Amino acid sequence: MKKVIKAVKDQIFVSSEKSEKVEKKIDPKKMNYKDHCCEIVREAIPYELANFIYNYLLLKRDAVEYMYSNNVVQEKKALGLFGTWKDQQIPNTYSHYGDMVMETLLMKLLPKMRELTGLNLIPCYAYTRVYKKGDVLARHLDRASCERSCTIHFGGEPWEISIDPTKQLFVTDTIQHPTHQEAVVKPNAPKGISLVMKPGDMLAYWGTHMEHWREPFEGTNHAQAFLHYNDADGPFANQNLYDKRPLLGVPSIGEYQSAIGERRPEEVRDFYKPTWDEELRNK
User: Fold this and answer.
1) Phi-psi region of 244 (alpha: psi -120 to 50; beta: other; left: phi over 0)
2) How far apart (Å, rounded) are the C-alpha atoms in residues 275 and 259?
3) Span 34-88, pLDDT tens digits
4) Residues 57/130, Cβ–Cβ less than 8 Å
5) Using an 8 Å Cβ cutoff, are 170 and 211 in contact?
6) pLDDT tens figures, 129-185
7) Cα(91)–Cα(95) distance, integer angstroms
8) How far apart are CA 197 and CA 273, in angstroms?
9) Hey, where are the domains in the chain?
10) pLDDT tens-digit map of 187-224
11) How far is residue 98's CA from residue 252's CA, in Å, rounded to a whole number?
12) What's the CA gap between 254 and 270, in Å, rounded?
């Protein structure tokens, strides 16, 4: 790719020949959202709160596993209220979309995220995981509801997260492989910047424009949450408010519609639509 492609609000996607120079200029300790669209915030929440949430997630994971295994609750009928081990991105690892504690945190950190980004953000959804040994988060970009995001670490062994601050387009083939499991990293891809967070730290980033990933986890547990927002004055405006749900804390749109008897395929398609507009994707 030799062209430099311009995106919304005059942010620049850096061409492949410039990406290495851009990477070398960025000091992770001096990385800030205004200049780089990503920033690490130390002690975004107090350690005591992070540790409480960490233990809450460990207890919840074990309790839900017991309930599913002993048919106390049938996962198919739970409508996503308790979490799952069937996440296609990282299968066999406990995750939960829309956990009420996480979505309370989503709202708690909304003012901080607005201040950090300088944008009129609206809440979309929260997603949490308790990673296990061997888990890999493949290099990827996020869908529209994850336009402006942060990941926050609650507890467990440290695990580096990597992010590409160059915003280089199409380094991975994630558009063709939306589950990310088959995503292929192209030759000469930017190496990215790797960061380690302590419990309570968060990394804010431009999820739809900055690829992020994690190498194989060698520890036992690592609990974190993704908190996702949209810029109300940006390209998606208010269309992804609450990730198209009626309010925070309820299951994802597909599960919610099944529960209330509404089946609108066009909305489900929009819910999983690719991050990029067709015009940008074809350039």
Assistant:
1) left
2) 27
3) 888 999 999 999 999 999 999 999 999 999 999 999 999 998 888 889 999 999 8
4) yes
5) no
6) 999 999 999 888 888 999 999 999 999 999 999 998 887 655 665 544 445 555 566
7) 9
8) 31
9) 5-281
10) 677 788 999 999 999 999 999 888 899 999 999 999 99
11) 7
12) 11
CA atoms within 13 A on the CB side of 75: 13
Topology (CATH) of 5-281? Jelly Rolls (2.60.120)
Q: Which two tokens stand for residue 34?
A: 């205004």
Q: What is the pTM of this model?
A: 0.79
Q: State the Cα–Cα distance between residues 45 and 199, nearest whole angstrom.
A: 9
Mind spelling out the 3-state secondary structure of the chain?
CCCCEECHHHCEECCHHHHHHHHHHCCHHHCCHHHHCEEEECCCCCHHHHHHHHHHHHHHHHHHHHHHHCCCCCHHHHCCCCCECCCCCCCCCEEEECCHHHHHHHHHCHHHHHHHHCCCEEEEEEEEEEECCCCCEEEECCCHHHCEEEEEEEEECCCCEEECCCCCCCCECCCCCCCCCCCCECCCCCCCEEECCCCCCEEEEECCCCCEEECCCCCCCEEEEEEEEEECCCCCCCCCHHHHCCCCCCCCHHHHHHHHCCCCHHHHHHHCCCCCCHHHHCC
Using alpha carbons, select from 250, 89, 61 the residue that is nearest to residue 174.
Answer: 89
Q: What is the dihedral sign for C-alpha 244, 101, 212, 92?
A: negative
